[in-house]
Predict the structure.
Amino acid sequence: MSRGIAKVAVPAPFPEALDYLFSCGAGSSVKPAVGARVRVPLGNRRVVGVVTGYAGSSNLADSRLRRIVEVLDDSPLIPENLLGFITWAARYYRYPPGEALAAVLPPVMRQGKPNRISPPRWYRLCSESRFSPRSQGQNALIERLRRAGSAGVLVASLEPADRRRLRRLVARGVIEPVPSGGVSRTTVAVEFNEEQRSAVGSLRKALSGYASILLDGVTGSGKTEVYIGAMREVLQCGRQVLVLVPEIALTPQLLSRLEAGLGLSLEAYHSGLPAGERLRVWKEAAAGTARVVVGTRSAVFLPLLRPGLFVVDEEHDLSFKQQDGFRYHARDLAVYRARLENVPVVLGSATPSLESLANVARGRYRRLHLGARATGAPPPRLRVLDLRQKRLTAGLSGELLQTARQHLTAGGQVLFFLNRRGYAPVILCHACGAPIECQWCTVRLTWHRERARLVCHHCGAERAVPEVCPSCGEPELVPIGKGTEQLEAVLAEQFPGFALARIDRDSTRRRGRLAELLEIAASGLAPILVGTQMLAKGHDFANLTLVAVVNADQGLYGTDFRATERMAQLIVQVAGRAGRRTAPGEVLIQTRWPEHPLLLELFRRGYAGFAETALGERKAARLPPYGAQILIRADASREEPPQEFLRAAAELLSNRPGVRCLGPASAPILRRAGRYRYQLLLESPRRAVLQRVLDQAYARILALPEARRVRVSLDVDPMEMS
């Protein structure tokens, strides 16, 4: 029996896979396959790694090489093409390959447990059931099962609260398992208008190979129906579809619409699913039996046996960019993977990112435009309400309240949009003016009155509301500013006869509560909605006729050069929730800066006009998408070490041709979770130049003596400077 050397990517901060010995020879079956998991010693512990290849020799002496303890998989768990894709992504985003693999694998796999799975479970209503629902949640679940018919509903596609309801209904004999699995179901006819029909035709022509296609459609234009039209063709050819959405909250709604249009039970894949379900979807995607998967950003790494189409819905959304750890951008990786797999990728949005629009202008992407709402409804009427010198009721103008009352009286639904949760963003002392700040971050604490707590929205620290000012000892503490909690209380007083639902991260903390509130909102049972950006995209509330943007000013003046782009997208997206059916829609935007260039551009020329102007400004300033950036971050428990480290790094990187080095400078939030944060920004007209500089210098940067006293992270193509 002879020895061999395997390259194993372990979940530790090593830039390359490590060398381990394995035995091979006649009658031996312990040689691990590339893509298989193995258990190996690392320091004084044992970890689960992935074999990425073999080596004929090692830079380490034989006496220092350690042996693989256990081979966990008889065959590759990660197909070779997917393994290559993940390791390329780790290399591009400068993240240790073993940690990248651990980050994207289902929890069961990364823990080294057997990857056996239970069969998928579908349930349907019993044919003779006459059960009367006892809650709105039960009623919504039974209605969904009724629509599904005999094909049933996949348990994994349900929110946690609905899974608990399902178990109770099974015990009562109301619901039964589907014996053979709910694969096919009755298809709901999808009628295309002329624009949609043309877009579907263009997509079908592109299915024979790689193409990046931007589906730019106004809110309510029926982009989902266009996806369905293209997916039908892909499925008829026996191939698979992967759909990426930015948030878990958008998954159930899109799943339901796609299932109805395709006549199939689809799969969901996101962190909110039980570990066993995520493993099952991974394996069924790899086997080709999961024909359509809808998932959040990590789903871009799912194995697909026969990929035929990638779809990125709401492609502009910041949530596609991972903001810590493995800082990849799922949209960009979907485009790259589609090229590798030689299949098309569709990027859909009503407010395309400036990066995607620039790629259209360069000829890298094709553009399909849907300019009208699918229902034929006109776009909502937009009005700016100037708050200057106006008497306000908790931040609401009299004109806004009067208009809301008119819509509610006429039977419409009103959404009050305020992208700030809690009761008040600041509590300060009336005597000395000092705000109450977080002990660990350089930010002010937000008052959450429902919980009687002051909360830091950055590190999560909480404390009770003090009885006196911590600075001067005076007892009078005053709330300043408005949050969704306060807005909810004010609206309950102003409109006592109308039910109200508040949808934000606080009201949806309990598992399953988000699905319940969205069902209430969609049914019209709550004529008044109060919400943050959780309600700004993807949702279709048939009876919503008025959207009120309570405070547009908080997004108009940001430190990040992308702030105006995000605010424009947010305004257009939330405005698009209004008037999507027969009743006309109206949007009121409250501001103290009605002459702000962003607002003027949006009202005069729409999002397309704003984007054209913004792209011109970016080009003149050589900012993305007309330049590339890499952000080097450093933090420590004291302020001096990250400054000293980044100054030394800047010296190593200075005078590099084609590279501009900016900083070091403090992060917008200097101290977060008790650590001082500084940044060094690298800019270049070409992305390849920055990557080449990192190839040459990054190892030397990490070897600097000052690096030992700080925590370093790298953000390639950063989307936020926070």
Notes: The chain has a mean pLDDT of 89.
